[in-house]
Amino acid sequence: MANTEGRIITVGVTGASGAIYAQTLLRLLDADRRVARVFLVVSDAGLRLLSTELGIVAADTKKLPSLLTGTAAKKIEILPNKDVGASIASGSAAVDAMAVIPCSAGAIGAIAAGIANDLLTRAADVCLKERRPLVLCLRETPLNRIHLENMLRAHDAGAAIMPAMPAFYYGPKDIDEIVEQFVYRVLAQLGLPQEKQYRWKGRKE
């Protein structure tokens, strides 16, 4: 079994609806003992999303991780999306995996086309070229042909395409449980399986 101790994860947040998914993922990563560090990159549209859906606005973006997790987030470092010279823009940086959650159709299009013109898309490009896990949680519906083709291109390049499509077969009681169960599955794709993830055991007819 692969070693999951001291993991370094990058999280990208775009302007697609679903800020609560990013918030939950960051909270769980910050609390996970197997995780040593989290790099957070938020696009301009992503910052607007956090304000619109969560009411979170940080005059000093360095405070954003703590505002999102509700605690003194010691593991999470936010990097400016315009800083294409940041460490995670290089394949030599020690990063184990990345998730873009939520992922807009525009972001997946840029990633699929290799247009790395900001830190978020460059970090994703690095994961693909270095054959590291990259999870793209697309939040768009309905999907047009361009979206579908971009999803296929990103998939064929090595990304895991995980549209924000929650399950209901386990009988969730509230929105938080729906969100958490989806995020648990994202974490599993990042190599960080969670004990609280619901696992289907079959049912006799």
The parts where pLDDT drops under 50 for at least 5 residues are none
Strand content: 15-25%
Distance from first to last alpha carbon: 35 Å
Mean pLDDT: 95
Summarize the main sheet.
6 strands, parallel
Reading the helices and strands in chain order gives: EHEHHEEHHEHEH
**Structure class:** alpha/beta
Spatial extent as radius of gyration? 16 Å
Number of helices: 7
Bin the helical content: 25-40%
Task: Assign an overall shape.
Answer: globular
Strand order of the largest sheet: 3-2-1-4-5-6
In total, how many beta strands?
6
Describe this protein's structure.
The chain has 205 residues and is an alpha/beta fold. It has helices spanning 19-31, 44-54, 64-69, 105-113, 119-129, 145-157, 175-189; strands at residues 7-13, 35-42, 76-79, 97-103, 134-138, 160-161. A 6-stranded parallel β-sheet has the order 3-2-1-4-5-6, sandwiched between helices. α1 (19-31) packs across α7 and α4 crosses α6 (145-157). The chain is globular, with a radius of gyration of 16 Å. The relative contact order is 0.17. The model has no long low-confidence stretch (mean pLDDT 95).
Question: What are the SSEs and their pairings?
Answer:
Layout: E1 7-13, H1 19-31, E2 35-42, H2 44-54, H3 64-69, E3 76-79, E4 97-103, H4 105-113, H5 119-129, E5 134-138, H6 145-157, E6 160-161, H7 175-189
Parallel strand pairs: 1-2, 1-4, 2-3, 4-5, 5-6
Helix pairs in contact: 1-7, 4-6
TL;DR?
This protein is of the alpha/beta class. 38% of the residues lie in helices and 16% in strands.
